Amino acid sequence: MRRPITAAMAGLGLALVACGGSGGTATTSPGTPITIGVSVSLSGDFSGDGKALEQGYDLWAEDINRNGGLLGHQVTMKYVDDASSTQQVVTNYQNLITVDKVALVFGPFSSLLTIPASTVVARYGYAFPEPAGGGPSVFNRGLTNLFFVQPAAVEDNLVSYTQFLLGLPADQRPASVAYATQDDPFTQPQVDKAKSLLEAAGMKTAYYKVYPAETTDFTPIALQVASSNADAVILGTQLPDALAFVQTFIQQHYNPKTIIETTGPDQGSQFSGPLGANTEGIMVPAGWTANATAYGNDTFVREFIAKYGGAAADISGDSAEAYSVGQVVDQAATKAGSIDNAKLIAAMHSGTYETIQGPMSFDSTGKPQGGVGVYIEQWQGGQAMFVYPASVAAAKPEYPKNNWQ
Amino acid sequence: MTLVLEAAVLGILTGGVYALMASGLTLIFGVMRIINVGHGALVVLGAYLSFAIWRALNIDPFLTLVITMPVMFGIGLVLEVVFIRPLKTDREALSVLVTYAIALGIEGLLGFFFTSNYVQLRAWYANASFPIGSFHVTYVYVYGFVLCLAILAAIFVMLYRTTFGASIRATMLNRTAAQLIGIDVDRVSAIAFGIGMATAAAGGVVFGITNAFNPGSHYDLISRLLTIIVLGGLGSLRGAIIAALVMLVSEDITSVLISPVWASFVFFVILVLVLLVRPQGLYGVRVRDRL
Amino acid sequence: MKNLPRLRLIQGAGVVAVFAVALAVPALAPDPATTNIAVFTMMYIGLATAWNIMGGYTGYISLGHAGFFGFGAYALGLLLTHLKIAGGYEPFLLVPVAGLLTAVLALGIGWFALRTRAATFVIVTIAFMFMLQLLAENLVGLTGGGAGLSFPSPTWSGDFFNTPYYYAMFLLAAVGLGASWLIRNSKFGLGLLAIRDDEDKALAVGVPTGAFKLTAFVISATLVGMIGGVYGYYVTYIYPQFVVDPLIGISMVLMVFLGGLGTLSGPVLGALILEPSQLWLAYNYGASKLYLVFYAAVFLIVILLLPRGIIPSALELLERWRTRSGPAAPAPAAPSTPSTPVKAVTP
After folding, report:
1. In chain A, where does the domain assigned CATH 3.40.50.2300 lie?
2. Which residues are bridge partners to A211 per DSSP?
3. What does the domain layout of chain B look like in residue ranges?
4. I need a labelling partner for A292 at 20 to 30 A (CA). Which of A65, A223, A354, C107 fits?
5. Average of per-residue pLDDT across B209-224
6. Would you tell me the crossing angle of helices B139-161 and B2-32 to the nearest 10 degrees?
7. pLDDT at C158
8. B115: how many CB neighbours lie within 10 A of its CB?
9. H helices within chain B, ranges in order?
10. A82 — pLDDT class (breaks 50, 70, 90)
11. Closest chain C residue to A125 measured between Cα atoms?
12. In angstroms, rounded to a whole number, what is the distance separating the alpha carbons of residues C131 and C228?
């Protein structure tokens, strides 16, 4: 149930791993093929995003091999399953680095597994680009080899949305806001930050609840949100609760002026399948949509559909993140002129990298910086598109959102 | 106050589903004296079977039961004969391990065929609801509840009005004595397990309509089901039903009145409190068993 | 009978040999990948042995021991955080304190849970485990909740890092085995076995069943708690659902059943077989979803073919071979792992 934006990280990490060689154990001579090791949650609790991420990585590996490899090295991806278990992820990275002697590693697909994995990887001096761990506790452990490959640190994900709300004319602004979030290092920091920003600007809080991530029946909580009659609803959800809340709102005939969920609406067909036309108007913070115009995105979308089928709207954000990781690694390796881990770490701490999620750069603890920000994506007419800020918007934001069907 | 009422109604409706699932579990325990920790996985299996049929034939999810219930009954028979019947020593302890292995195997197979993406059964009327006072009750919950009542009633009728039901009850009371009077306890066990599976199929459909699920969903389910049957008294059908309702209503009311954070905790607290006073559960029989 | 002293000598030598090899593992195979597996294997040896003290000797099957494991991890983590202790060797000294705290918890839970029997007891232990998990998740101010708890990280190099943890686990496993052996050869142990056979008759004969059961439960839980503490320290960061994890609880039970419930070396054997192979399998085949199916299949085959576990079945075979060969047959080679398993009494 934890679906952090690991794909991007993983992709990046893998690319870095492939490029940089190891911090000591493996050395790569020019032109030799290299392996990039990733620990993936393919079974257990976090097995959801695995496939999307793998698809993104594989597509990236294919592309880069076609273009001559990573600094001349042909890339092979090695995926190992960590069964969403701490024990296994720790074992996996030790094995990948010391037994398989992979050139580079990427972060695991869950923020929860990222932290224990990061200490293991740091011990060996490997770069650790990771797509999943963006919560505050990831960055305060004193590690310098870690890079969170996403447009913003997790807690800033909803800042664009608060700016959108506060930018509305005074008579249209929501009178009150209801917040409900999982007790999860990915969702809660975002919602809490949004709440403090909105309250400071004078928007009333009609309801605020934190619920355990292990909840199975979200209906009672959704009922409470509905009965608060708030104009705006901010939900810190993963996919299952994202669906459950919306369904309860429909059943209770509760139609707020605006709804935003931290994950769920960005999961493509997994979200639109169960909801059908009722995805209309729902927003989600996102760094990427299929029709965004960032670096190489249209090529990515075209190739993705050619390789895996489906429609553009079905592509999950995770695959895009995976691909971005690869892009960053490729560019960092070119800049550093080497795929040695230590050199890559140094290179990645400076400069800006162009990815299909937009430009990215990292501070000394690996936090993404530069105010690139995460945008607002909204479902309109069966497609998800950026609607805010205006510089990236493909359409005007639908506010208030249409009624349920 | 209306919020509490809403929560109570919701609790009763969802309690019905859990009652159905728990009834199969407690029946299996009563007849065979084994703890089927794989029951959650079997409910999920039922949900997936319904999902597959629904996706292929595009019919109302409830109608899939016509196929899944007999199929699951058959699967139950096979599982019982192949995996459970051979257990002779340390039955209760080993049955836990065996049924857990079955659960893992099912989870793996489901993951292989359906991937770990969350899915949900959708009826075209899934979000339709009717108003009661100031809130709305969703039709599917009501249909599911009615289905559960119907199946539970059928089980009761079977148990108390048919000869076969009498053999089941006899086996539950005293397995050896039942054998002595000529009941084929092996056959009774197999059929009871099959019935348990059929109820899991029905529970699976309602569960699958009201929740998003994936192969890993069985862990949460089984912990609640086990708690419910212990609260109700192992082997007591009546107890399972009442316990399910009590649990779900308290959980939902706690979620609304206090906080969702403590709602599941209340589940277990109630169990602990009841067991303090009645270690055999609400309707359990005090037996001096040994493993 | 006259071969008994020689048998004992062989057994004793076997114990020493195994001990020596176990002690030397980091020297024999210093690469981190192996020592990593060794740490987890030794951990499960300790866990299985500890669980066996309760489940094997008294017959009360607890499926909630993962709760104590997690509690021990959190106890140690919180002690280290509040006492501001840095990574290194000092945290190991606080492990017994975490054990003590777990003992107190076990006393409370045990008093309550042991009022029930058999299947109810099993489910009550599961319920308590989930309660502990929920408390860990929801007492955010204390445990950090879903965001997890950090342990101080030692600055040892990648190649040496695993070794101190291995020895810590080894020490705990040795203590567990020692306790298990002592209990087995004491009146206390006899009482426990009597409880397993027929609790009411034992009570009638004068065995203080309540006190004995509780003591075994507390000893078992304390060991598991301490092992949990070292585990948390090893992985450096814990979350409620990973450290109070039903899978850990059921793994230790499976290992005991595989090796032989109630035997001394059974749990050790079970852990030695299952843990390394599970880690290896997940690494090499986990990427395919069929890994779970394969694991389950192995599980089922073992249980159905060897319901009493390897050691008792092996000993039974040995016994049958010995008696078939006639009274003049020489003493059979002692089993490589020392044990005096209790012959399974009537189920």
Report:
1. 34-154+293-369, 156-286+375-388
2. A182
3. 2-277
4. A65
5. 83
6. 30
7. 75
8. 17
9. 2-32, 39-57, 65-79, 91-114, 139-161, 163-173, 175-180, 185-210, 218-232, 237-257, 260-277
10. confident
11. C158
12. 17
User: What is B2-277's CATH number?
Assistant: 1.10.3470
Inter-chain contact A85–C247, Cβ cutoff 8 Å? yes
**Numbers of helices and strands, H then E, in chain C:** 16, 2
Highest mean pLDDT among A125-129, A255-259, B136-140, C328-332: A255-259
Q: Which residues of C touch B234 (CB under 8 A)?
A: 119-120
A–B interface: beta-carbon pairs under 8 A? 96
User: What top-level class would CATH report for the domain A156-286+375-388?
Assistant: alpha beta
Report which of A160, A211, A13 is spatially closest to residue A93, judged by C-alpha positions: A13
**Residue A13, pLDDT above cutoff 70:** no
CA distances from C290 to B115, B288, C186, C295, C304 (A): 11, 42, 46, 9, 21
Cis peptide, bond prior to residue A400, ω within 30 of zero: yes
Residue A14 CA to residue A73 CA, distance in Å, equals 13
Shortest Cα distance, chain A CAs vs residue C18, angstroms = 25
Sign of the CA dihedral B30, B31, B33, B37? negative
pLDDT digits 0-9 by tens, B36-45 = 989 999 999 9
Count other Cβ atoms within 10 Å, centred on residue A331: 21
CA distance to partner chain C, nearest, from residue B132 (Å): 34
- Buried b vs exposed e over B8-19: b needs ≥16 C-beta within 10 Å? bbbbbbbbbbbb
Which of the other chains make 3 or more beta carbon contacts under 8 angstroms with chain B? A, C
Separation CA C38–CA C161 (nearest Å): 13
Stretch (H or E) spanning C93: helix C90-93
Contacts of B107 in chain C (CB under 8 A): 292
pLDDT band at C328 (very low <50, low <70, confident <90, very high): low
Contacts of C247 in chain A (CB under 8 A): 85
- The span from the CA of C195 to the CA of C189, in Å, is 10
Q: C276: which 2 tokens?
A: 């390394």
Instruction: Assign domain A34-154+293-369 one CATH number from 3.40.50.2300, 3.30.390.30, 2.60.40.10, 3.40.630.30.
Output: 3.40.50.2300
Q: Which two tokens stand for residue A33?
A: 């093929």
- Do C257 and C271 form a contact (C-beta atoms < 8 A)? no
Residues of A in contact with B256 (CB under 8 A): 220, 223-224
Q: Which residues contact C83 (CB under 8 A, 6 or more apart)?
A: C94
Q: pLDDT tens digit string along A260-293? A: 999 888 887 778 888 888 899 999 998 777 777 7
d(CA C179, CA C173): 10
What is the spatial distance between Cα C342 and Cα C347, in angstroms, rounded to a whole number? 13
Which residues of chain A neighbour C157 with C-beta distances below 8 Å? 123
Helix C162-184 × helix C187-197 angle, to 10°: 80
The yes-or-no verdict on residue A230 having pLDDT over 80 is yes
Lowest mean pLDDT among A15-19, A133-137, B62-66, C168-172: A15-19
Determine the longest span between alpha carbons in chain C, in angstroms: 71
SS3 call for C154: coil
Please indicate if any CB of chain B lies within 8 Å of the CB of A240: yes
- B271 in reach of chain C (CB within 8 A): yes
* Both tokens assigned to A47: 């097995």
Contact, A374 vs A389, CB < 8 A? no
